[in-house]
From TrEMBL:
CDD domains: CARD_BinCARD_like. InterPro entries: CARD, CARD19, CARD_BinCARD, DEATH-like_dom_sf. Keywords: Disulfide bond, Endoplasmic reticulum, Membrane, Mitochondrion, Transmembrane, Transmembrane helix. The keyword Protein biosynthesis does not apply. It is found in: Endoplasmic reticulum membrane; Mitochondrion membrane. One of its GO terms (cellular component) is mitochondrial membrane. It holds the Pfam family CARD. GO terms for biological process: regulation of apoptotic process. It comes from the Eukaryota. Residues 38-96 form the CARD domain. This is Caspase recruitment domain-containing protein 19. It is a single-pass membrane protein. Associates with BCL10 by CARD-CARD interaction.
Length: 179
């Protein structure tokens, strides 16, 4: 699709109320005049920056003038629009048409969601099973002295757990050490 057709398609969007403010239009006109003097002459730039005319009229005239002068002029307008109003440039209707995905292309965001759709409960369940297996393996290992270490930890933990719970755990550990 040529830039002139794109500009014709985007003209209503660009000229609608409060899309482009006067400062952005002036910056675009100045860029087309100063950076690319072959796009707009000094007289044309003054005409399109005339504060006596309404912004809507000036912008409509500028877009018609660029379309009349060819595809390269329209392309430079899009470049100036991208530099001076990037958010508006990304919201253009012609850009949205260009961004439509290829049906054969894999959507990575959707693929990522499909891989992670189990949720936090599944993660907590897997983590609990792994922690339980690790604790079981550590406790059943005959080389470690789990009971003595556990007694020392529980002996210093009246602040962390209640007194009754601590007494029950201590009795259980003493009973385990006798066996």
């Amino acid at each position: 699709q040529s830039y002139c057709h794109r500009l014709q398609h985007d003209m209503y969007f660009l000229t609608s109320t409060s899309r482009l403010n006067e400062q952005v239009v002036d910056k675009i006109v100045l860029q087309l005049n100063r950076v690319y003097p072959q796009i707009l002459t000094n007289e044309e730039a003054e005409k399109f920056r005339n504060p006596k005319a309404s912004l809507h009229t000036r912008l409509s005239d500028l877009l018609k003038h660029l379309q009349k002068n060819g595809d390269r002029h329209c392309q430079e307008f899009y470049r100036a629009l991208q530099i001076n109003a990037e958010q508006l440039f990304n919201d253009l209707p012609s850009r949205k048409i260009l961004k439509t995905p290829d049906p054969t292309e894999i959507d990575t965001d959707k693929e990522q969601y499909m891989l992670n759709d189990r949720g936090p409960v599944f993660f907590l369940a897997c983590f609990s099973v792994a922690a339980g297996l690790a604790l079981f393996w550590y406790c059943c290992n005959s080389e470690t002295q789990v009971i003595g270490r556990a007694r020392r930890i529980l002996g210093f933990s009246p602040i962390i757990i209640g007194r009754h719970v601590r007494n029950i755990c201590m009795l259980y550990l003493e009973d385990m050490s006798r066996n």
